[in-house]
Amino acid sequence: MAEVAVEGISKRFGTVTAVDNLSWRFDDGRLTVLVGPSGCGKTTLLRMIAGLEEASDGQVLFDGKAVTTVPPWERNAAMVFQSYALYPHMTVFANMAFPLQARKLKKDEIRQQVERTAQSLGIDHLLQRKPRELSGGQMQRVALGRAMVRQPEVYLMDEPLSNLDAQLRVEMRGEIKRLQRELGVTTIYVTHDQAEAMTMADTLLVLRDGKIEQAGDPEHIYRRPASAFVAGFIGSPMINLIDGRLEGESAAFMAGAARIPLSGELRQAAMDQGGRPLLLGIRPEDVVVSQESRPDSLPARAVVREPLGKEALLLLAVDFLPAGSLLRAITPPELRPAPDETVWLHFPPERLHFFDAGSGVAVQSLRLEPKS
């Protein structure tokens, strides 16, 4: 397979910079997911790696060899598009065979490779159908098969599941992950769906404004976001972010009149950095909600409860958030506060994240490792 790298790569469209001096090495044989909001540069980066977009600066390398000026058909990379891009007048067999015919392989070899690939994808019974006779999931498998049959060194996938319904997306992302592991092909996958990114990635790259905001293991990024942007983008329901400041004398985080006490290592850091404006982040599943008051708990008013089966999402009105904003908490299904009922919140210190109020960067000195 191939190791893919980009070095100082940029792409400008007039005065707009889509990718900004970005460098990264995509590990051979692993699945790397690019995730971020619309306009962050993820698809533009993928297209430059494919050769479909010309870089303004920098270079693309396959196995250490610069391919920046090499045309797409000579890069031995296969791209799967969001729109499937199947030829409507051709059968499934003809769609999958097309790239092999372009390489002038023998008919018997083409037939063997197409049939073998179709069988691995479970579409061997569809080879004589045309795209209009297929479901969305079947068309996506054909598009994958057309990429796989070439036996490329690199797979490039641009939001390939975005046109499928929710259940089929879950099935297909598992299928893609399984195939990638079996084939061991270097794969770069673009999505805006953070749940899809978390479940599929060996390595996750979170992009923002054409740059890498954070990269690494998906679980580490979730538990230790490098910035408030990453914390807010990765995770569903999204993290709660609360404006406030450290109070050194009482070693607490003050959000308006609400006092969130800190303890242990956080207590000492708070005393050292008293007065510093910060964002406090806590994920909904880390908020402890009780219908009885306990020491150091904060009052809240239940607004909406959304049952999710094994758990529920509780939306809460609290004094320390701006008017109209609600705090999110994941609660056990048996906790059923009535609308407008007062409940009590506890924020475990080891589950708190702190970010600089100006830059949004995580404050390393205010981090504790969660208890196992």
Features of the shown structure:
single chain, alpha+beta, 2 domains, six-stranded mixed sheet, five-stranded antiparallel sheet, 9 helices, 31% strand
Architecture overview:
A hairpin with a 2-residue loop joins β12 and β13 (258-261). α2 (92-102) crosses α3, α2 packs parallel to α4 (136-148) and α3 crosses α4 (136-148). The strands form 4 sheets. This protein has a 6-stranded mixed β-sheet, sandwiched between helices. The radius of gyration is 25 Å and the shape is elongated. The chain has 372 residues and is of the alpha+beta class. It has 2 domains: 4-232, P-loop containing nucleotide triphosphate hydrolases (Rossmann fold, 3-Layer(aba) Sandwich), CATH 3.40.50; 239-366, OB fold (Dihydrolipoamide Acetyltransferase, E2P). It contains 9 helices and 20 strands. The mean pLDDT is 90. The two termini are 38 Å apart. The protein is 25% helix and 31% strand.
